[in-house]
């Protein structure tokens, strides 16, 4: 039963109200009555009623003064006002004291019961919320914070009737004003130790635990801070980032963090948290070593692009650069591939898969021709795992560039000046592809006419003639093995069998069919 205290200076009205209303039928019991405010305050402390029915006009301490004293004590007691004065000023003042209803004398029984039903529902909800907190000690300030930040994720919460963020903000005692959420993603080393991870989390919690303006919380999988003073500028973001780095960066542990932007009131904190989550999801593409915010820029924003002439795509040029030992071309091409993938809307996984494929393809092409690379790959496998675990695009770029440069160094023997030999070896490996002297001259950083002249002086043949002759020699081998003419044409890089037939006649003197028949 809900305990009721009736306060009125008129004895007949007090007793009449006590007997008029069927209190127990509606879940109430009258525990006491009082003739004025002072007496009521004393009985309030004795009986602790949950509802007081209070007359406005009383000698000594009147009803409004009584309610004012109760609110000073932070009492959550519900109050229904009784008055013979339908005075608007009384009503206004009573409302500021958070009263539950205002009834004019003589009391209408039906109206009174309607108020009692409303108050009973409110008290029952408060009781459920109270039991919920008592039964689960873990539902502390941090739990309320999580509910505030995830208003749509409170299923099963008995206190979540209405799912009102204002309720959680009030329960947390958050005053009106601007707030901002910072989410922190802890990044563990490959060989992480659970105990050490917990120790670092505890260190962050302890550091901010006594800071009332920066409330620590966890919001899986993140750590978080509710800032009572939003980060105003890049200097304040940098200062917080340094604090976090000092706490987290040890024994291979790292982090990234994002500030979701200021919101005008605590009830809107979920919007700031959503923005911080979105920034962390995009962190792979944003510049490192900063507290991410709406002002953060992408890794390649403003980076100068290397212009290449029309020809094979960047991925193919990168493979050619490695195979010809053209180290200076590798990093610009890696950047170009990254930029093209981003422009095409590729996500983080797609970019990682692309570079894993490039590295694997390069090794597969070069290992048969270069024993040194086979030995290198056996000793030091490609950084596949490192690429997949890259937390930032710039890290992935550095890892891929470093590995490809090492391979290119093994191919070139560490020096410049044997470009023609590299080209000849490349033609032997990739005779069936559309190799162009212009593309190779870009990789070697030569004028194409000059490189063509160097090639002619060294081999005695023009570049295209040399390629044709290598293709025809390979074709002769395949024809001798019994392959059909159209199959051989395609295998050595001629998509048109008639064109292949003409080339073969030019360099061999007979048709491919005749050569196949005679061999």
Describe the structure.
This protein starts with a strand and ends with a helix. The protein is built from 23 helices and 9 strands. The mean pLDDT is 84. The strands form 2 sheets. The protein has a 5-stranded parallel β-sheet with strand order 2-1-3-4-5, with helices on both faces. Strand 1 (2-7), helix 1 (11-20) and strand 2 (28-34) form a beta-alpha-beta unit. Helix 12 packs antiparallel against helix 16. The relative contact order is 0.05. With 519 residues, the protein is an alpha/beta fold. It folds into 4 domains: 2-129, Rossmann fold (3-Layer(aba) Sandwich); 171-285, Reverse transcriptase/Diguanylate cyclase domain (Alpha-Beta Plaits); 314-413; 447-518, Arc Repressor Mutant, subunit A, CATH 1.10.10.
Précis, in short:
With 519 residues, the chain is an alpha/beta fold.
Based on secondary structure, the structural category is alpha/beta
Helix percent band: 40-55%
Provide a count of the helices. Answer: 23
Sum up the overall morphology in one term.
rod-shaped
- Just give the CATH class of the largest domain: Alpha Beta
Q: Any low-confidence stretches, pLDDT <50, length ≥5?
A: none
Mean pLDDT: 84
Output the CATH topology of the largest domain: Rossmann fold
Which strand order does the major sheet show? 2-1-3-4-5
């Amino acid at each position: 039963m809900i305990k009721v205290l009736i306060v009125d200076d008129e004895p007949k009205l007090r007793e009449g109200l006590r007997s008029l209303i069927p209190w127990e039928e509606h879940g109430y019991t009258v525990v006491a009555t009082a003739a004025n405010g002072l007496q009521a305050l004393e009985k309030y402390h004795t009986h602790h009623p949950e509802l007081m029915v209070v007359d406005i006009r009383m000698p000594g301490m009147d009803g409004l003064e009584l309610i004012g004293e109760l609110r000073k004590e932070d009492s959550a007691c519900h109050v229904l006002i009784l008055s013979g004065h339908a005075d608007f000023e009384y009503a206004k003042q009573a409302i500021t004291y958070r009263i539950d209803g205002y009834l004019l004398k003589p009391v209408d029984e039906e109206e009174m019961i309607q108020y009692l039903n409303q108050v009973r529902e409110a008290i029952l909800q408060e009781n459920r919320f109270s039991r919920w907190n008592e039964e689960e000690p873990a539902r502390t300030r941090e739990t309320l914070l999580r509910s505030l930040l995830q208003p749509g994720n409170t299923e099963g919460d008995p206190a979540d009737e209405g799912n009102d963020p204002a309720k959680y903000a009030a329960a947390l005692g958050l005053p009106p004003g601007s707030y901002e959420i910072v989410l922190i993603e802890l990044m563990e080393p490959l060989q992480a130790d659970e105990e050490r991870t917990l120790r670092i989390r505890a260190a962050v919690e302890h550091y901010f635990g006594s800071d009332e303006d920066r409330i620590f919380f966890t919001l899986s999988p993140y750590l978080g801070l509710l800032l009572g003073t939003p980060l105003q500028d890049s200097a304040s973001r940098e200062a917080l980032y340094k604090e976090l780095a000092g706490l987290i960066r040890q024994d291979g542990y790292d982090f990234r963090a994002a500030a979701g932007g200021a919101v005008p009131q605590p009830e809107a904190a979920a919007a700031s948290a959503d923005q911080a989550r979105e920034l962390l999801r995009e962190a792979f593409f944003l510049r490192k070593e900063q507290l991410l915010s709406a002002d953060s820029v992408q890794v390649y924003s403003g980076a100068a692009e290397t212009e290449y002439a029309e020809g094979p795509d960047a991925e193919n040029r990168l493979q050619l650069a490695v195979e010809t030992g053209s180290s200076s071309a590798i990093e610009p091409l890696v950047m170009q591939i990254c930029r093209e993938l981003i422009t095409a809307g590729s996500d983080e996984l797609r970019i990682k898969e692309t570079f894993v494929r490039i590295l694997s393809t390069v090794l597969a092409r070069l290992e048969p021709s270069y024993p040194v690379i086979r030995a290198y790959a056996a000793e030091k496998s490609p950084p596949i795992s490192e690429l997949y675990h890259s937390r930032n695009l710039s890290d992935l770029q550095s890892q891929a560039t470093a590995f490809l440069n090492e391979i290119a160094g093994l191919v070139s023997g560490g020096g410049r000046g044997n470009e023609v030999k590299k080209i000849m070896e490349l033609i032997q490996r990739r005779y069936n592809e559309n190799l162009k002297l212009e593309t190779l001259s870009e990789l070697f950083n030569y004028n194409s006419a000059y490189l063509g002249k160097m090639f002619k002086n060294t081999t005695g043949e023009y570049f295209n003639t040399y390629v044709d002759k290598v293709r025809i020699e390979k074709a002769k081998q395949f024809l001798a093995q019994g392959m059909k003419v159209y199959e051989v044409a395609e295998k050595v890089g001629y998509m048109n069998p008639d064109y292949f037939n003409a080339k073969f006649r030019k360099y061999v003197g007979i048709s491919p069919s005749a050569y196949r028949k005679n061999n």
